[in-house]
Amino acid sequence: MRTHIIHIGAGELNYEIRNIIRVAERLQALGVKINLENIGDPVAKGEKIPEWMKRIVARLAMEDCSYGYCPTQGILETRQFLAEQNNRHGGVRIAPEDIIFFNGLGDAITKVYGFLARTARIITPSPTYTTHSASEAAHAGLPAITYGLDPHRDWRPNLRELRQKVRYNPTIAGILVINPDNPTGAVYTDEDLMEIVHIAKEFDLFIIADEIYQNLVFEGHRTLPLVEVIGDVPGLAMKGVSKELPWPGSRCGWIEVYNGGRDRDFAAYTRSILNAKMVEVCSTTLPQKAIPDIYRHPEYPVYLESRRRRYQRFSDLAYERLSAIPGVVVNRTKGAFYMSVVFEPGLLNGRQSLPLQNEDIRELIDELVEAPGVALDKRFVYYLLAATGLCVVPLTSFNSELNGFRFTLLDPDEERFQNTVETLAWGVRQYLSSSGETAKIPGEALVMKAHAAAR
Ligand code: PLP
């Protein structure tokens, strides 16, 4: 090209949650039966959308106005409804003007980071949902700045590290919290949230809280939405319908701006996000129209509760099985629908393997694991996928130095989910015990059992 055309942050845009599917497809072509456990899409995993919800959407689909553009910020009645819902919490009050709709939170996330000054950084948790860390890093053209979540303390944030990094890095303008969290399934305690707000206030920062899983907190646990703890600190909460209804294909999410008028720079920044949306015209109309009717429906809380209970039961089931394996750290999920398993440091090496069905599969896996820079947990994930068809995501792909993997609690079929957990347990034990020896060749009872389980 005549001039340089590659964005400074292009190299940061890597979404392993979907990249791994390319490997799965190649293995499928070689006869491996694939079980996708990599994407947080309840519908793809077989969640049945209730009739009453479909009827609301079907009725709206018969109205001509559902086919038009909507106002840039989103449909006023829906924003009024959401502002009223928010104002039921004790905390900052918002007006419909403080809400902006996007084409899914993915769109909101790229704009929120994309319209920050290039030199302004948001410190993100580690591990973190990749869209945040990748978009933030791409905006700066530099690797993400992170604070750790600690698997040995129920994934609680390392607030001492957060404070130190904020103190000594004046480019940090804001703190990201994902609550409940993807990929760990943790929820933030009141105490931790308040300390984060305290740090933001002390160093004149704003807070971004991704609360897309806020209504998927399990029984016996609780967490506060940002609006209840933020006080007078400027902030943004991110919400959406992808996980909760669930309707990820609607591409519908929104941000709520808290204390937008309290800081001139913050006000100008949020205005630029709105202007960016205006240039783009608006977001999806029909799902916005559906939101009030779905949220107000008497069956909605019942449906949500049944899903929460199922995820919690599945988390308990997986926890009991996986936490018994020496060498891994597992925590029960407290919200959202993910579980992350961490390998103790030093347990993985570049020689471990799992038994593979045939030479073609072995050749493909050799090619993948021998590529330069393949993380040790990714190596495990490739072997697991090739040996059992089970597709999980390496933890290092969530901008983390911890080796491990994430899977979901989404499969609505309990027997199939149990099989998935058995396959994981088998894969972890077998891989760790292979300790660099070439794993035994197929045909072994254990391999067959794993394959049966993967199905
Ligand atoms: N935020 C978090 C924490 C997520 O886990 C996801 C999807 O997995 C998203 C945002 C993206 O949501 P959307 O479908 O609205 O783009």
Key features?
455 residues; alpha/beta; Aspartate Aminotransferase, domain 2; binds pyridoxal-5'-phosphate; 42% helix; 4-stranded antiparallel beta sheet
Question: How would you describe this structure to a colleague?
Answer:
The chain has helices at residues 16-29, 51-61, 76-87, 104-114, 130-140, 159-168, 190-202, 226-229, 264-279, 285-296, 299-322, 359-369, 376-388, 414-434, 445-454; strands spanning 35-36, 99-102, 121-126, 146-150, 156-157, 172-178, 206-210, 235-240, 253-258, 328-330, 338-343, 390-391, 393-394, 404-408. By secondary structure, the chain is an alpha/beta fold. It folds into 2 domains: 10-47 and 302-454, Aspartate Aminotransferase, domain 1 (Alpha-Beta Complex); 68-296, Type I PLP-dependent aspartate aminotransferase-like (Major domain) (Aspartate Aminotransferase, domain 2, 3-Layer(aba) Sandwich). The protein has an 8-stranded mixed β-sheet, with helices on both faces. Strands 10-11-14-13 form a 4-stranded antiparallel β-sheet. α6 (159-168) packs parallel to α7, α11 runs parallel beside α14 and α13 packs across α14. The longest helix is centred in the last third of the chain and has 24 residues, at 299-322. The radius of gyration is 22 Å and the shape is globular. Mean pLDDT is 92; it is low at 437-455. Pyridoxal-5'-phosphate binds at residues 40, 104-106, 129, 178, 182, 210, 212, 240, 242, 248, 253. Pyridoxal-5'-phosphate binds next to α4.
